[in-house]
Amino acid sequence: MTKQIVFSGIQPTGDIHIGNYLGALRNWVRLQDEYETIYCVVDLHALTIPQDPAAFEKDRLEAAKMVIAAGVDPTTSLFYYQSQVPQHTELSWILGTLTQLGSLNRMTQFKDKSDRVGANLGLYAYPVLMAADILIHHAHKVPVGEDQTQHLELARDLAERFNRRYGDEFPVPEGIIPEHGARIMSLQDPTSKMSKSDPNQGSRILLLDEPDVVRKKIGRAVTDSGTGIEYDWEKKPGITNLLEILSLFQDTAVETLVAEHHDKQYGEFKQLVAEAVVDGLAPIRSAYNTLEDEDVSRLMNKGALDARTSAEKYQVGVRQKVGLTGH
Ligand code: TRP
Questions:
Q1: Is 324 exposed, middle or buried (0-12, 13-18, 19+ CB in 10 A)?
Q2: pLDDT bracket for residue 75 (50, 70, 90)
Q3: Atom of ligand 1 nearest to the CA of 133
Q4: Does the beta carbon of 133 lie inside 6 Å of ligand 1?
Q5: Ramachandran region, residue 265 (left: φ > 0; alpha: ψ -120 to 50; beta: rest)
Q6: For residue 224, what pLDDT is reported?
Q7: Is 155 a pocket residue for ligand 1 (Cβ < 6 Å)?
Q8: Mutation choice for ligand 1 from 13, 22, 42, CB with most ligand atoms inside 8 A
């Protein structure tokens, strides 16, 4: 039986943290066994907020290295930079002609980001390009965090619209949203998501943080009033977030952890969580350190070549359906 296709993308905006890892990257790695996996560093998406060109070059490479260090195998998965495969933007334009402004106006991420950095056309069209990323490869499944469900809904809608207007072309993609890990919260404010744009470095653990940095950040994590290790997002968001992190790094159900640790002091529990995170990140840090920039760039160029070939195969059909074949 042919395998279903999985597609996902990560923005190269620097500082990849455990929220990105537990919510996305780790699942990318696991999906490699069961699906035909296609992963992309979505550099064009990242351009929708102002980037310094030299720093951006570094961030792109860094993102590629982190994805590989986290366990995405570029000989198993198709892995490349979005900007190197022009079929994405071509399809994005065509899908844009099927997109109602009303649906873009409803996008909460657009509203949030345009409040912060000002509105530009790229930011507005961001969800259309994302739909193109997914549809260009005829993906069936899209592993994403919970914050992307609205964007994914548009991709589904555009697949259906295209199919209705021009004839069957695209599978309607489905999200794979992890039950746990989709929302790792800030260590400093466990009611808001761990984020790379938080000015407080202590709010997040980076994948490349040294063990002592990890210990310090978890040691200083905000906990809740009272005592006892309980899973309760309302009453104990700080401890609950740490339980979630421990559960993911140790691959152990939260209930089991609560049964084991319920009467521990916060300090002791934090030490335990810190060691689990240190152990979980060690192989990623060591893999990252063995990767040479030139080798990664070479892998990415090869990935782009293969991705252009496979995307073009489908894009020919799209052009035919739309009436853009030139005869
Ligand atoms: N918008 C996604 C994010 O910020 C990144 C992304 C771009 C993506 N294109 C995609 C994710 C296609 C999944 C599929 O996380």
A1: exposed
A2: very high
A3: 12
A4: yes
A5: beta
A6: 86
A7: no
A8: 42
Output the pTM of the full model.
0.94
pLDDT in tens, 262-273: 999 999 999 999
Mutate to test the pocket of ligand 1, among 7, 8, 109 (most ligand atoms within 8 A of CB): 8
* Rounded Cα distance, 34 and 95, in Å: 29
Is 193 among the catalytic positions? yes
Range name among 10-14, 27-31, 177-181, 209-213 with the lowest pLDDT average? 177-181
Please state the atom number of ligand 1 nearest to the C-alpha of residue 139: 14
CA end-to-end distance (rounded Å), the chain: 37
Distance, CA of 323 to CA of 27 (rounded, Å): 39
Domains and CATH numbers, the chain: 5-181+292-322 (3.40.50.620), 201-288 (1.10.240.10)
Sign of CA dihedral 312, 155, 93, 23: negative
Q: What's the Cα-to-Cα distance from 201 to each of 27, 71, 284, rounded to whole Å?
A: 25, 25, 20
pLDDT in tens, 141-185: 999 988 899 999 999 999 999 999 999 999 999 999 888 777 899
What's 169's DSSP letter?
Answer: -
For residue 228, give both structure tokens. Answer: 């006892």
pLDDT at 189: 95
For residue 10, report the distance from its CA to the centre of ligand 1, in Å: 6
- Among protein residues, the one whose CA lies closest to atom 11 of ligand 1: 9
